[in-house]
Design a protein that fits this description.
Layout lengths: L1 H36 L11 E5 L10 E8 L4 E5 L2 H12 L4 E8 L7 H16 L3 E9 L1 H7 L4 E10 L6 E2 L4 H7 L2 E7 L7 H4 L5 H26 L3 H9 L6 H6 L5 E2 L2 H11 L10 E3 H7 L10 E8 L1 E3 L7 E3 H13 L3 E10 L1 E3 H15 L4 E10 L1 H4 L6 E4 L4 E3 L3 E7 L1 H7 L24 H26 L6 H4 L4 E3 H6 L5 E2 L2 H12 L5 E5 L5 H22 L3 H11 L5 E3 L5 E2 L1
Parallel strand pairs: 1-4, 1-10, 4-5, 5-6, 6-9, 11-14, 11-22, 12-13, 14-16, 16-17, 16-18, 17-21
Antiparallel strand pairs: 2-3, 7-24, 8-19, 15-23, 18-20
Helix pairs in contact: 2-3, 2-11, 3-4, 7-8, 12-13
């Protein structure tokens, strides 16, 4: 027995010391990674520089460290530029005599919301108007990519590539039959005939009201698109609409024929064009500088003085708390609002909203904090791709609301969903629930049985009360008659153009316009911009990514083929409480 304990303790101590050693080694590696983030080589701006702009898949509001582009050899993570940094780069480069032009390379994977694309498009126009050239090239072009490329002096398309210009399509996915097969019934409560976020659970196609609003939204968006592109390419809207409606471009040669493309060319020919613009020889290296590298080499100048304008980014689905790039944590936003309010050096706040809404309670908690903030300083809202439902709720108290023509906003309506999974639990999974209660409604909201008519009436009353509060808040803050609210509300979404015409938005423009309004209202001549909330560090993102990946891996291993059923269960149970959310999840192509 003594021998056993001797070996046991020796093995245990060895394990402990080994674990400590591995921990120290791991911390050393992480320290090296962290150190590398602050030691990235700063690029040099040549006297004749060409900015290289290659927008790819997804453009977020702010720059993030792209963990998918981690170089193990250099321990560096590539930064994925956000909209704020892209706009800042273009503004600075416009006034930089060292920057002669831009090589705009449209990646086939380029994807972003149409308001984001328009904001970049407009910034590219300012860049071009400052006397810089823009040469665009792509192998595969669609409407989004062409929106940016249309600004260029010359647009080149690969001869073997493709150019699809056939208009916009908005698709909504419906899950009713899938839920039926799983044995899940979604018990729906709502106010607003246009509040169709619940339709995917109820039908297999759009309701007439939903089809009406989607039709109006998509056509309004496309009208703005055609007007911008027609102006850029010196064509008429009717010409472009005819090309799109009849899909007249069915080959790369057609793109040149209809003057949408300047010339068919391979990339080496495009690079030769760029050399010619700078009077370089064939073997001379082109002085390219990536957009992110330019900003690093030429950071925005900070104006003298301690006064600041805060830019508060409110992005994602509104929840009480939570993490993720597509989640707006009310807890985190409230914390940031309170910091802004208590900072005497902050003289105005721009609330940048990019959200389809979410929890009604979380929206109201943020609304209250914004009311208190407004008592201290001007509050200006800048709407991104979407600021709808709960996203509009938190926008309502602003002194001025600025939206893009393509912004989806409004959606003033309320809904709630309680899944009923008796068939799934009892018959498909063999799970049964039993219990005791002290009152008739003590088990209100159970998912293992259908609701009674009395229970449904209680939930619907909650919905009506929340809708009444929502419309009253909009009426009070926007100075709109409460009697007129149903023509504006009922869950209907509007583009920025339509919202402005109806008094839901004050001005059309981007975040730069909102910041300028904030500056004027605060009376500042010199100021610094400060962003909230603080972004997670790369190390925090690494730990979070590993944690999530391990959890999902374990679930897949344990559940096997049943993992997909778990995902469906998650979708059905993710919505909690009364919701102020966009009436549908829309994908515009």
């Amino acid at each position: 027995m003594k021998q056993f304990f001797k070996f046991f303790f020796a093995s245990t101590l060895g394990f402990i010391f080994g674990a400590i050693l591995l921990f120290l080694i791991g911390m050393g590696i992480l320290a090296s990674i962290a150190s590398s983030f602050s030691e990235k080589e700063v690029a040099k701006i040549e006297e004749a520089t060409i900015l290289h702009f290659k927008p790819g898949m997804g453009i977020r509001e702010r720059s993030v460290e792209d963990l998918n582009n981690f170089d193990i050899n250099t321990f560096q993570i590539k930064t994925k530029q956000g909209l704020a940094e892209i706009l800042s780069t273009l503004k600075q480069a416009s006034a930089d005599s060292r920057v002669k032009g831009m090589y705009l390379e449209i990646d086939p994977t380029f994807m972003a919301g149409y308001s984001t694309v328009k904001e970049i498009h407009d910034a590219l126009i300012s860049f071009h108007d400052s006397g810089k050239f823009i040469v665009a090239y792509s192998e595969i072009l669609g409407e989004r990519g062409y929106y940016l490329a249309s600004v260029a002096d010359d647009i080149y398309l690969n001869p073997s590539g493709n150019f699809i210009f056939n208009g916009l399509y908005a698709g909504v996915w419906f899950y009713k039959d899938a839920l039926d097969k799983l044995g899940i019934e979604m018990q729906v409560f709502k106010h607003g005939k246009f509040k169709s976020a619940v339709e995917p659970y109820m039908f297999n196609e759009m309701s007439p009201a939903n089809r009406l609003q989607v039709t109006r939204y998509v056509n309004s968006l496309f009208d703005t698109y055609l007007e911008d592109v027609a102006r850029d390419r010196k064509m008429t809207v009717s010409e472009l609409r005819n090309i799109s409606d009849n899909m007249l471009i069915r080959s790369t040669e057609d793109a040149v024929k209809y003057k949408m493309i300047s010339k068919l060319a391979y990339e080496d020919e495009v690079l030769a064009d760029l050399r010619g613009r700078l009077d370089l020889d064939e073997d001379d290296k082109l002085p390219f500088l990536e957009m992110s590298a330019y900003l690093g080499a030429n950071p925005p100048s900070k104006n003298i003085g301690k006064n600041k304008i805060a830019v508060l980014y409110a992005n994602g689905v509104i929840q009480d708390d939570g993490q993720g790039q597509d989640v707006m944590s009310a807890k985190e936003i409230i914390k940031a609002i309170r910091k802004i309010r208590k900072d005497s050096t902050i003289k105005a706040c721009v609330l940048r909203i990019n959200s389809p809404g979410g929890s009604a309670l979380a929206s109201d908690l943020m609304y209250r904090e914004l009311i208190l903030l407004k008592e201290k300083m001007p509050l200006i809202v800048s709407m991104g791709d979407v600021a709808a439902s709960g996203g509009y709720y938190i926008a309502a108290p602003a002194d001025v609301i600025v939206a893009h023509p393509n912004t989806i906003t409004g959606s003033i309506g309320v809904f709630g969903v309680i899944p009923q999974m008796q068939e799934l639990l009892n018959e498909k999974m063999g799970i049964h629930v039993d219990g005791v209660k002290t009152g008739q409604f003590s088990d209100l909201g159970r998912i293992d049985r259908a609701m009674t008519p009395e229970e449904k009436a209680i939930i619907q009353a909650f919905i009506e009360q929340t809708y009444g509060d929502f419309t009253q808040i909009v009426s009070d803050n926007r100075h709109l008659a409460l009697t007129a609210m149903d023509t504006l509300a009922e869950g209907r979404v509007w583009t920025g153009v339509d919202a402005k015409a109806r008094g839901l938005v004050d001005q059309l423009g981007g975040i730069a316009a909102a910041i300028e309004i904030a500056r004027k209202k605060s009376g500042l001549e010199e100021y610094r911009l400060i962003s909230y909330p603080m972004l997670s560090s790369p190390l925090e993102m690494i730990f979070k990514m590993q944690k999530d990946a391990m959890a999902e891996s374990l679930l897949k291993e344990q559940l096997g083929d049943q993992y997909q059923m778990l995902n469906e269960f998650r979708k059905a149970t993710r919505i909690k409480g009364i919701q102020m959310r966009m009436p549908f999840e829309i994908h515009v192509e």
